[in-house]
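Aim 2 progress update. The chain analyzed this quarter is reproduced below.
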Amino acid sequence: MEPVFKTPGTFGKPGRAPRRRFDRAAVASLFAASFVAFAVAPRGDAASQILPASKGEIVAKGDFGEFRKLLAGETRSVKELLTGVAVIEPGKEIHPPHQHAEEEFLLLAEGSGTWSLAGQESPARRGDLLYVEPWVMHGLKNTSDKPLVFFVVKWSGKGMEDAAKPDATTTAKPAAKPAAGATPIVSRVLHREDVKPDAENSPIGDVRRYWNRALTRSMKDLVTGVATLNPGQEVHPAHQHADEELMWIVKGRGTWHFDGHDVPANEGDLLYTEPWKLHGLTNTSDAPLTFYIVKWNPTAVVMPERPAGQ
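Predicted structure tokens:
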């Protein structure tokens, strides 16, 4: 079987919409409208696929910069999924601090700025990873003199009710920090330098698991992290598991191992894999390769058993 390559949009329906320009005020309403469209449009769950960076659809463009949508729609365990990459110009933000019913991860891939989380501001640096619970106010502004790039994954879990919006007299805040040894994660920013690598001076490179075997409202056994592979290295050979997974190449190039095929892997590419789909990534270049990973098992959806013969 040939590898599956799809352009973004609703799953299994390739195509690109014409580019349009939007001001910042239109971006938030665009995202909201997109979620409504996904909710009513007939579609199936996502198929395992590689989405080349060149096929990303620019859905918002203005004085703030641009937002390029990658994978969006539904997977086996999540709905209202939005993944994409934003390039934010100096002094700008894609929209002011906001809140929504979905959970969200946001990786600051390049540049620096200022985080806003539950009314508090803090420095934002390359390699930071933000997790946001439903209805917690959050935002990111480029307060530097160079462009800022971030990658976002936003979703709601299938098989469970959406989180209720707090009433007008209350403001959602991050939950209390869990006790020592507990696994649930709360809205917060993790800085790269505060996350220890898996092993010092590893020949593989630098592998940091920001959250490992963690729990969110809709996910369990969650793994998030950033790895920089040395030339010729991989975290592990092509493999398969019961989890769904997203891998986004921050910088560099290499080779995807996808469903028994070797496929060129380039900066900005996104890989999505369903449960038990064979996949992997090797740095086959002569320079470092950096990628970001989100891997999860849902809390409210039963995942398939390993197929017979695998």
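The first helix runs from residue 24 to 40. DSSP finds one helix and 19 strands in the chain. These observations will guide the mutagenesis experiments scheduled for the next reporting period.
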